Amino acid sequence: MIAKRLRKSLDEAISIRDIFEEGKKMADIYGAENIFNFTIGNPSVAPPAIVNETFHEMLDTVPAKELHGYPANVGHPDVRSHIADVLNKEYGGKYTTEGVVMTTGAAAAIVEICHTLLDMDDEAVTFAPYFWEYKSYVGTVYGKLVPAQCNMETLQPDPETFEAALSERTRFVLINTPNNPTGAVYTEDSIIKVTDILKRKEKEYGHPIYLVSDEPYRALAYDIEVPWIPDYYRNTIVVYSYSKALSLPGERIGWLAMQPDVEDYKDLLAGITASIRYLGYVNAPSLQQKIMLKCAGEKVDISIYKKTRDILYDGLTKIGYTCIHPDGAFYLFMKALEDDDFRFCQVAKEEKILMAPGTAFYGPGWVRISYCVPSEVAEASLPAFEWLYKKYTDK
Amino acid sequence: MIAKRLRKSLDEAISIRDIFEEGKKMADIYGAENIFNFTIGNPSVAPPAIVNETFHEMLDTVPAKELHGYPANVGHPDVRSHIADVLNKEYGGKYTTEGVVMTTGAAAAIVEICHTLLDMDDEAVTFAPYFWEYKSYVGTVYGKLVPAQCNMETLQPDPETFEAALSERTRFVLINTPNNPTGAVYTEDSIIKVTDILKRKEKEYGHPIYLVSDEPYRALAYDIEVPWIPDYYRNTIVVYSYSKALSLPGERIGWLAMQPDVEDYKDLLAGITASIRYLGYVNAPSLQQKIMLKCAGEKVDISIYKKTRDILYDGLTKIGYTCIHPDGAFYLFMKALEDDDFRFCQVAKEEKILMAPGTAFYGPGWVRISYCVPSEVAEASLPAFEWLYKKYTDK
After folding, report:
1. What pLDDT digit, counting tens, does each position of B252-307 carry?
2. Does B271 touch chain A (CB under 8 A)?
3. Domain final position from A253, A268, A295
4. Are A282 and A74 in contact (CB under 8 A)?
5. Is A77 helix (H, G, I), strand (E, B) or coil?
6. Same domain, yes or no: A260 and A119
7. Does the structure show a pLDDT above 90 at A16?
8. Which residue on chain A is closest to B57 by alpha carbon?
9. Which residues of B touch A270 (CB under 8 A)?
10. What is the ipTM metric for this complex?
């Protein structure tokens, strides 16, 4: 009796979900310490100490009605004002309290934007490989997600493919850098090419095409500058989450922000405010909002992720695997040793290595290695990866 | 550039939102203490002390990765198991961990159910007057909300109108008792009549019609038993929120629960789990889930609401107003003194009384008085209500 639309997507999704279930099952059989589970995106680095301190402080000092009562749908004004200040200081922007909307994580912000911008069959374009839930977010409001395949040698956006993916019905482009699943940070050159095309297409179509920049991994970039998209494109909506920056993914807290010169600014804000209500969000969790008065500019110790990345990247390339050097997030994209990445993942399981097949992310022929694991696990997995490699090359 | 669908609903909704904005404006002009604002549904009674204590305790004792990391989409198993126990103890049910799903408040649960059950143009029926957001929740997934008007003398469901509202396309019925906006608690007789019709219609149509019982006000009932819907109807999904029971509306924490004998139980759970992801919720805020290990069975001191209700109900009926005695929630439904309830609310404003027009809730000719205000405010408002009454009767 469940909706036909949903039934269809559940049946399609089954093979992907299986992989995650498999990790739990194998942990039960062999013990979690005896398998190399690279499928999980749950941050392993502890939140900065100030997070716990601030939770306690807010619970001790803010009156219950202010702390736990209904804030405005768009969030507490003091928190939004503080985040606008943080953004303006960091990027020299023109953000105001009004243009910062607190959201129940980045996923919520994206669905709210879909609900605000898409009528039935309207389109959003994203660069593939991409986080698989994007398709569901757009589909929830009967929109259509159009993928623009990246150059699979560099994992950077490909201008020609991108331009071909745009149409009169494109309402927004969803960009995610540092990227899940590839770990790529899109270069300034890529951003300039993408935004130049968008500016041209906006003129051609005579309506805005928003650039929605999904940035949960911005704080996780290693020795590299992540271009700040609003510097390149006026109609940018930045979507942020503290899930990775503060290791708080279970707390569902983030924001979306736009500067006052974004086209149809007031309408967009009204639409997003209504979407927060219509989708049942009501407001981002109030206590989690309040801690951002002290924690908005903080981040976890990313040197731990960097160390694990180096162990894996160096180790895997030394064995002979083809990997694109990941400059951000905690994902490494590696070429499978056969065309069928699902089968490659199955074979890897025999060595107790669990990875997510690239096909799940619209990146067939590759696999995603999520390295938010203790660095000792990464180190210990290398002999298993070597066995796996030999299995294919000794054939 | 916002979606046409949304633009239409924003334009329709403008007059209702104006009323809430008006409250803020009048508070700025006259001072909040000089107006009688009965439009707000923000609980005024403090959370029980154990809530704050438990927040501190969880922050001190649960490891950060368990407390702040990703739980399963459906929530922490220990919390769900505890809530199942609480329900089974209270109502003698057969709830299991699997059948309890933690949600980002009751609103989220309802949208998740809509997303799970409704294909385009499928129908949900609810009893009018009803909480206005219901229409938006159903509309978000392109479903249709069909109102069944209550008997407006008793504010109880009317069996004939209800039966006429059902159709082959009815996927679920949304029931809300104690009710927002009327404060009515649907009697056992009402529930039996409604569920008897549903059982007959399920047979006639050959498919389940779920009864979704939205119960955020269950803990706020005064000297009256609120019938437990699953006792009367097998295919019941109970939706709960701690917003009012614990005065935590800003924290967005609740659950939905169904017993294993609900038809298509496994499919429903799979659909709801997917909907939590597709709608961008991911999971209910983790910290708020965890405090329910200690607070799930607690509730605020409702004697404060009861006192305010008595002051208003006795005072208003003594003046001459027609009110239905409200047995639950913190709302009192009062007959407007003219047919046009919008205009009646405008006239009331001249006496500094702010109320929400019944038309906003599909209850034309009535007004909603939200009495989650200090009882002194209720007391002080009575002379103003008397002036208002005289304005109409002295004409």
Report:
1. 999 999 999 999 999 999 999 999 999 999 999 999 999 999 999 999 999 999 99
2. yes
3. A295
4. no
5. helix
6. yes
7. no
8. A56
9. 2, 10
10. 0.96
